[in-house]
Amino acid sequence: MRTRLLERIANLEVPIPTGVVTLHEIAIKRSIMSYLERLLNTRRGDPAIDPNYGLPDMANIAGTLHAESNEQLEQDIVEQIQLYEKRFTQPAINQVIDKKNPTAFLYELRGMIDISEIGAVMRPFILNLKLNSGGRISLEEKRGF
Q1: Of all helices (H) and strands (E), which one includes residue 7?
Q2: For a pLDDT cut of 70, what percent of the chain falls above it?
């Protein structure tokens, strides 16, 4: 059953408790993750409409990642997010050492997202980012932080 218009407007003004996850928040997170995965797995220069869209070829970097190229990769990821995914604000990335697999390239990507339908509720959004040996990046939401 639908609520009346004034009731729906009044409900928009009610702040969302910090521990509650709404369907809208889940949809926003999925949308951002899907877009970031496409963005970060697009080779820079491939889209004809924007030669700056995407990351450099990661296949060569993944096999020989060292401190300088790691810093450049982190900088490129943050720059791409700032340019092309405005819903994910204040992005920051840090490399994470996997004790089970020290040669794996794992990162923690942190930022803020607006989960409100009217644009007033910011929440932290933390993703685990993994670069495989073929240069492909995969994302998953970090839970329980």
Answers
A1: helix 5-12
A2: 74
Domain housing 96 = 21-141
What's the CATH number where 129 sits? 3.10.450.40
Per the structure block, which two tokens stand in for 82? 């700032």
Closest Cα partner for 133 from 65, 83, 81, 50?
65
Specify the DSSP class assigned to residue 131: E
pLDDT tens, 10-69?
656 555 555 566 777 888 899 999 999 999 999 998 988 899 999 988 766 655 656 677
Per the domain annotation, does 103 fall within a domain? yes
Residue at 75 is within a domain: yes
Total-model pTM: 0.78
Element (H, E) at 88: strand 88-96
- The number of domains in the chain is 1
Task: With H, G, I as helix, E, B as strand and everything else as coil, classify residue 66.
Answer: coil
- Asked whether residue 13 is domain-assigned, the answer is no
Alpha-carbon Rg for the chain in angstroms: 18
